[in-house]
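Deliverable D2.4 — example input (structure tokens):
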């Protein structure tokens, strides 16, 4: 590699932070900086003090045709459950009130190690999403699951959400609803099965907030298939939704599929999709008016309910409260994205 590309100074494996830093320091002597030299060796968390991302694995065993992550990060490698729980425990000890569980595929946690039994505080724990959620649920903070692949195993964590162990919140990228497009994307789950599953989840846990992402204008998507996606939205009544117009990432297999959708059509479909969802989101938020909800305050005058993840979902605007603390807010009005209220 270095013979072919002499300007490359070092090559490391993925997520080898130490290796990268060693190489950097070999070639670039670190100047003395009285501010950064005071940074503790364990680093500095970049999120506000009251919430933190908890990465449970790296890489992915799926091969979605629009995605190049597996070719860059490799197959799934789960972190040992004891290590994940120690990190979570330390974060909570340092004042974190919300843990955001992240990975490329949270529901696959432990598949690579055959759900090996690990240990935390002397207790055996399976390297598995359900066991992890149960253990995180004992820490007494908000626990939010991101990037959950729509497997049947997701059903296992819904009772835990209903019981208050972890937040009733699922960030679950469905990507599309047309069975043919899902096959072309190499995604699982036919739409009608997904709809039945959503209904069953809501019956078990009526408080459940579902966030999802979709792609409009995937190669070969016909107008009828796009309409199928809109009909799915009407039916699924998801709480929070993001939609991307298909973007041909270099190296993605989907780029070679026949009948690419022209860029203007992709954009137009994304716009129509978001317009449709805006009505659903607005109605969902309106139903919260008059309720008194627990809010975690992120900044002066801005907080989030358990239905809102930081940065991607909506907010609650109100006066008073203390940043980084929970408070109760009575909701007075809403719009398409946000809620407005007053301290209860
Ligand atoms: S989209 Fe997600 S699940 Fe699919 S290959 Fe990429 S990282 Fe894996």
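Example output (designed residues):
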């Amino acid at each position: 590699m270095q013979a072919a590309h002499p300007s490359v100074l070092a090559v490391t494996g993925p997520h080898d932070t130490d290796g990268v830093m060693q190489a950097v320091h070999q070639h670039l002597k670190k100047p003395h900086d009285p501010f950064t030299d005071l940074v503790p060796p364990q680093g500095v968390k970049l999120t506000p003090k009251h919430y933190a991302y908890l990465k449970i694995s790296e890489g992915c065993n799926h091969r979605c045709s629009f995605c190049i992550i597996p070719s860059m990060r490799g197959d799934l490698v789960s972190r040992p459950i004891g290590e994940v729980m120690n990190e979570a425990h330390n974060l909570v000890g340092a004042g974190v009130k919300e843990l955001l569980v992240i990975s490329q595929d949270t529901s696959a946690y432990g598949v690579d190690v055959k759900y090996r039994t690990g240990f935390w505080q002397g207790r055996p724990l399976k390297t598995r999403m359900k066991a992890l959620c149960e253990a995180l649920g004992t820490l007494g903070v908000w626990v939010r699951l991101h990037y959950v692949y729509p497997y049947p195993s997701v059903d296992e964590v819904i009772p835990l959400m209903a019981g208050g162990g972890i937040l009733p919140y699922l960030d679950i990228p469905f990507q599309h609803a047309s069975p043919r497009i899902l096959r072309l994307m190499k995604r699982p789950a036919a739409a009608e099965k997904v709809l039945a599953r959503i209904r069953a989840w809501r019956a078990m846990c009526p408080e459940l907030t579902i966030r999802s992402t979709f792609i409009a204008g995937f190669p070969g998507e016909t107008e009828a298939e796009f309409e199928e996606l809109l009909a799915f939205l009407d039916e699924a009544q998801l709480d929070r939704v993001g939609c991307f117009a298909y973007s041909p990432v270099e190296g993605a297999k989907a780029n070679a599929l026949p009948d690419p959708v022209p860029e203007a059509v992709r954009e137009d479909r994304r716009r129509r999709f978001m317009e449709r969802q805006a009505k659903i989101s607005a109605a969902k938020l309106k139903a919260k008016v008059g309720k008194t909800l627990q809010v975690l305050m992120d900044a002066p005058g801005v907080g989030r309910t358990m239905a809102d993840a930081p940065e991607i979902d909506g907010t609650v605007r109100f006066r008073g409260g203390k940043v980084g603390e929970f408070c109760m807010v009575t909701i007075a009005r809403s719009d398409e994205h946000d809620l407005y209220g007053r301290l209860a």
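The CA atoms of residues 10 and 24 lie 9 Å apart.
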